[in-house]
Structures are given as structure tokens and as C-alpha cells.
Design a protein that fits this description.
By secondary structure, this protein is mainly alpha-helical. The protein has two helices and no strands. It is rod-shaped.
């Protein structure tokens, strides 16, 4: 289990795991923004 985790994170992170949480939040924001950009023209047709 430790090998894939070590391959995924090249930079050593502090024990509290703040960079991982920040990366998750940024990833979720980017995903939500791209999803909204893709779905907005479709939703706008029905309004």
C-alpha cells in the first residue's frame, strides 16, 4: 500500500496533511468549474 502512495506524492508533506487537503479543494473547484462550463449551455436551453 505504501508504494503507490509514494509514487503519487513526490514531495514530502508535513504530518498534518494540509497540502493534500488544499490540492483536493483546488481539484474539486477546477472540476466543478469545468463541469459548469460544459453543462451551462445545455441548462440554458431549458430555462
Amino acid at each position: 500500500m505504501a508504494a503507490p502512495l509514494a509514487q503519487r506524492t513526490q514531495t514530502p508533506e508535513p504530518p498534518d496533511g494540509v497540502p493534500e487537503k488544499v490540492g483536493t479543494v483546488i481539484g474539486n473547484l477546477v472540476f466543478a468549474a469545468s463541469l459548469a462550463l460544459v453543462l451551462w449551455p445545455i441548462v440554458r436551453r431549458f430555462l
